[in-house]
Design brief:
By secondary structure, this protein is α/β, with parallel strands linked by helices. Helices cover 47% and strands 15% of the residues. The protein has eight helices and seven strands. Strands 4-3-2-1-5-6-7 form a seven-stranded parallel sheet, sandwiched between helices. The protein is globular.
């Protein structure tokens, strides 16, 4: 895999890697330009089955987002990603997938209007942020958590503007939120204002309304200004 070769300490093809990474970023930026409307990035597990409640909820969120005027951007794979893209297709909207080459599990779902398959995670994750007016984050594992905390870090440090980050399924996320409030905040690892970066809901309509309200108020034009200016 390209990332593995790049991260090997003794890899000697630095110029070649730099050129391919640059080409990949350009391809991603061009794909974002083709979306042609505001977009929302939806994240969640690739391992969610079509029969699950989470799949149905992500599909509904995808449809409601396009009906509200947004494109839907996902990682382009199965599970929650497929469900949100499928919902966008149900609503006759724009459905986008930024996929990644993996040795297992990840494959492109059939509900995509714009699709790019990346070799490098960092190029791919940049496109999720560049395209987005907000994030909706469904239950997931390490990859979903990575996307959640990267978005919070970028907002907290002012690298991106303050767009909504919506956690869907309060029961799933509650233990993490309890730890953040019960450990990180009292220990001074985050500021009270940082807690305001997250919204939580179990209602697909509310998830979309939170993003639409922010978009209409242009709240994403205002950077977050937490007391803690770094992300250590």
């Amino acid at each position: 895999m390209e990332d593995r070769r790049l991260l090997e300490r003794r890899d000697g093809d630095l110029a070649g890697h730099a050129e391919r990474i640059g080409q990949e970023f350009r391809e991603g930026f061009e794909a974002v330009d083709r979306i042609g409307r505001p977009a929302v990035s939806v994240f969640g597990s690739a391992r969610v089955s079509e029969a699950s409640a989470v799949y149905a909820q992500a599909r509904e969120v995808g449809q409601l987002l396009v009906e509200a005027g947004f494109a839907v951007v996902t990682g382009g794979g199965p599970g929650v990603m497929e469900a949100a893209n499928r919902g966008a297709r149900d609503g006759d909207g724009v459905s986008v997938g930024f996929n990644i080459e993996l040795p297992h599990e990840q494959h492109e779902n059939p509900y995509l209007d714009i699709s790019v398959t990346f070799r490098h995670f960092y190029a791919r994750k940049t496109m999720f942020v560049k395209a987005a007016e907000g994030f909706v984050i469904f239950p997931g594992g390490f990859g979903t958590l990575d996307e959640l905390f990267e978005s919070l870090t970028l907002i907290q440090t002012g690298k991106v503007l303050h767009f909504p980050v919506v956690l869907f399924d309060s029961a799933y996320w509650q233990p993490l939120l309890d730890w953040i409030r019960g450990r990180l905040l009292p220990d001074g690892m985050i500021s009270p204002e940082d807690l305001e970066l997250l919204e939580v809901t179990d209602d697909p309509g509310r998830a979309v309304a939170l993003i639409l309200e922010c978009y209409e108020r242009n709240c994403a034009s205002m950077p977050a200004e937490p007391e803690k200016a770094d992300a250590q």
